[in-house]
Amino acid sequence: MSGRPTPTWALIAGGGTAGHLLPGLALARALVEAGHAPDSLHFVGSERGPEGAMVPQAGFKVDLLPGRGIQRRLTPANISAVVDLARAFARGLVIVRKRRPAVVVVLGGYASAACGVGAVLCRVPIVLLEQNKKAGAVNRLLRRVARASAVSFAGTDLPRSVVTGNPLRPEIRAMAEHPDPAGARAALDLPQDRTVIGVFAGSLGSRRINEAVRGLVEEWGHRSDLAVRHVIGSRDFHDYMASAPQPPDDGMIYQPVRYEDRMHLLLDASDVAVTRAGGSVFELMAAGLPSILVPLPIATRDHQMANALAVAATGGSVVVRDEELDSKRLMGELESLLADPHKRANMSVAMRGAASVDAAERAAEVVEAAARG
FRET partner for 217 with CA separation of 20 to 30 A, picked from 67, 160, 329, 347? Predict the structure, then answer.
């Protein structure tokens, strides 16, 4: 005998990037742990984002909306972008009307704007989930009508905010609660007796960071006390590898890779990280990993710099502006950390002290309270 479909309790809208989507998936898992059926949680995302693959893999259903970003200059592509955006808003409204959820959770990205507007028109309470110190465009658009905001940092510019931290994906949380650096190093073929530097900057990578690391490996290639695992990113991987530095056999262990699909292992294995400063800074804090943060200078509202300064205020990281980073500066910052294990240990304690390992549960409580009214 077939039963009726499970009513939608929460519509989780947004994505377009893993940075927006992963906290939403962590929140959904926490809501399931709190007693909500997986079928009662429905995602709405972008056809161009990772949602189409990642959401079903996590055990949830998703509707994908058409659309693309609108460029700030007048181009023919903007005409079709506006048409797609209008279609997305119409579909978002239809989805909210059809499913009539108890609450809509907004993650950011245009797909969340479509469902957010639909929620306003259908009088469904909205909860904003903000990953960064400075709120994104969609969350600022909807902040006046949102019932609550689950924010990652104190002082984020959204009303009715509850500081929850940024929800962590399960493998990162498991690593934070049960660290095993030796096991992580073995899995990544990294030595147990060297200082490990982890370098990463998102799926595309960072040319600025990559070139600084190139110079570092060329200068420090003789050092037998170091190992560097360098996630180059997809954009420049082939060009970089065409002239990648090669340390001598008895020197530095250097592992240039295109992408790291086991980030929890790299965080656990590393002694120091060099990276950007998106919402993933909460993964660094969960790992207790001393970090050199190089904020992306073109990030909206310079939110990566705001994130980096907030983390640096805890004592767990050093901030270097993108335009100031070269191999000489990188070596100088690293040397001050590598030469002082006591300083690194204090930074690690500071990072863990600022972590919000239970952020997903905290955010779930905000969502449930908003749904109850």
Answer: 347
The pairing of beta strand 10-13 with beta strand 103-106: parallel
Residue ranges of domains in the chain, CATH in brackets? 10-168+357-372 (3.40.50.2000), 175-354 (3.40.50.2000)
Per-residue pLDDT of the chain (373 residues; tens, 9 = 90+): 445 678 999 999 998 888 889 999 999 999 999 999 999 999 999 988 899 999 999 999 999 998 655 555 555 555 555 666 777 888 989 999 999 999 999 999 888 999 999 999 999 999 999 999 999 999 999 999 999 999 999 999 999 999 999 999 999 999 999 999 999 999 999 999 999 999 999 888 999 999 999 999 999 999 999 999 999 999 999 999 999 999 999 999 999 999 999 999 999 999 999 999 998 899 999 999 999 999 999 999 999 999 999 999 999 999 999 999 999 999 999 999 999 999 999 999 999 999 999 999 999 999 999 999 8
Half-sphere exposure of 279 (CA within 13 A, CB side): 26
Sign of CA dihedral 274, 275, 280, 282: positive
CA 45 to CA 204: how far, in whole Å?
21
Q: What angle do CA 90, 91, 94 make, to 5 degrees?
A: 90
Distance CA 60, CA 37 (A): 10
